[in-house]
Structure formats: C-alpha cells, structure tokens
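As a warm-up, study this chain.
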Amino acid sequence: MMSIGEFAELTGLSVKALRLYDEQGLLKPARVDPDSRHRRYSAAQFEPAIRLKAMRAADLPLAEAPALLDGGPDAETLLAGHGARLAAERERQDAALEALGHLLAKADRHEWQVLERTARRTGWAGVVLPVPDAEDPDVEAADDLANEAFGELWRALDQDGNRPTGAFWTTMRGAAGSDTAVEILCCWPVARAVPEGWRVPGRVVESGTLEEGRELVVRWRFDDPVVLVDGATHPAVLALLAAAEERGEAVDLSRLRQIGLMEQGGVAGMEVAIALNGPGA
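Now compare it with the structure written out below.
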C-alpha cells in the first residue's frame, strides 16, 4: 500500500484534499495504521481519486461528488448541466474581453451627442416596480416585468378614456425606508390627471406632473454599433450623467428619465434625459 504522500503524488491530489475527502466520506483510505494513524491507499482507489481530481479541475461543486463517484444515472445529467453553465460563463467572458478590447481602442470610442432642450409640462401615471438585485441581475426577466406593467397601465388608462399621449418613460429612485433597495417608476404621459384613488389591479400606482424646464438629453438606437458591458448601465446614460456633472449639476438619479424612442409604432431605441436644476441643486 501507498502512503498518503505517495498517493497524492500519483493522483495529483494534495495531501490536504485527501484528508478532506476522508473526513467527508468521499475517499476513505484503504487502511489506517492503528498506532500512527497514518493513512494507506491502494491501487484500487486510483479511479475514484482521478474522478475527484477531474471534478476539481472542472470546478464542480463538492456537493455533487457522491453522484459522480457513484456513476449512476444522475451523473451524466450533472455533467451536462455543469458543462452548459461553464459554456455560458465562457461566452460571457469572451464578450467581456471583446468589449474591453474595443474600450481600449480609441478608434472604437463612441462620441455621444448631448443636447439641451425644454421639456413641456406633462401629467403622468406610473406603476412602481422593485429593481432586481444588482449582484445577480436577470435582465430579460426584469424587462418582461416592466413591459407587463406598461401594458397593464396602458390598458387601464385606455379603458378610463385617458389614453397615453406620448412615449413611455422610466425613472429610478431609492425605495422609501431603505439605503440599498431601488425601484423604478414606469410612466405613461396622460392628457388629464388620474383621479385620487385610481388603481390598476395588483399594482402600486402613482401619478404626478412633469413640470416644464430645461433638460439634457442623449439618444441611441438599438441598432447603433455601441460597445456594451454585461451588467453595466448603457454608456449613453453614463455620458449624460458625466455631462451634467461637468455643468455643475448634482447627479440625482430621480431626475433621470429613460424614454422610449418610437418609430412606426414600435420602439427603435431610447433617449435619456436629466432635468437641469442649476449648480449644486
């Protein structure tokens, strides 16, 4: 039989890992000397040891080791699922590397046009939605929830004879009573104020008035060749906030609106606007 050091050398597993696998019942030594407590391993244990080594190299969770060592029907399912997760992660990494290369290349940098305009006074009605945890954002699910909220709000306003008068917008803000939670307000502009107590079933509804005033705006189309980094805010929004700060404006996200850019009955892009309140406001 082999000592733990010899077995470690042959299998590529560390002595520390072999002791851990012994403690967890994954790979117990063939014999333990009753006096010295030294572990001894046999050649018959090479196969499970190499499986564990391959598992570690593939970053498989230790919790899945029993099924993979057993080699039962669940093993192939576990491997396929883990392989799909690794492929998705590699795809994200490749996209991030490509984006970083573009960001480092001066020739690929997009110059955003920041314009100033006057926003007209407009009444609005909106639905409040929580923003998903930024540590694990599910962008598609969040978009689906927002689209669903916009649709329900539009239908409720239409049924009330108060059909929206323009493009939708969203506004982000901190949730009341929390330092970390964030929520968005999904708004439609309306011709007349909604009555007090007006509701959309199952939704938290707010209403108000967008006052006339100057604002900075940047727009982009969905087909623009823009470098995007997964999970980061669209660079047009960041460019707008930087432009506002350069003008001495306080960067207040509650003054920021993302507005649908409507073309031929569909959304062709977005524009983002921030109200100007003066230096230090």
